[in-house]
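Name: DUF4124 domain-containing protein
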Amino acid sequence: MKPLLLLLASLFIAPSVLGATIYTWTDSNGLVHYSQQVPPGVDAKRISSDDIEPSKIGTASPIRKTAEKEPETDLAKSAKLIKEKDSKQAESICESAKHSMSLLDTYNRLTRKDPVTGEDVVMTEEAKQAARTENAERVRLFCN
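Structure predicted for DUF4124 domain-containing protein:
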């Protein structure tokens, strides 16, 4: 029974002990200072931490920016024209781009024919990334 009374008494006393005394003053430059100790030679105002209202944090909701529509690229215009005029060609371009993407994602060492010499040249990682980007754009434009 004694431990229970001791626990209850400590619960009622603890909140009053947690409230700290804070001193505030303004220096000659107009800067406001806060401290738990009174500095010597300063006229400080005594306030209690229980009296300070905590600021609200995170109450402003973020504002979503509306996405601006980008102007249509030449590739998008030509893709639109090809899809309108020749759907078979658009389907062929779509399948070719999907196949290229599959090859680029599957194999690590790929070669291409050099347009000048006609020799097989190993594709660099930068060239593979550029090819991925190009084919992803073709898939986006022709496959829908």
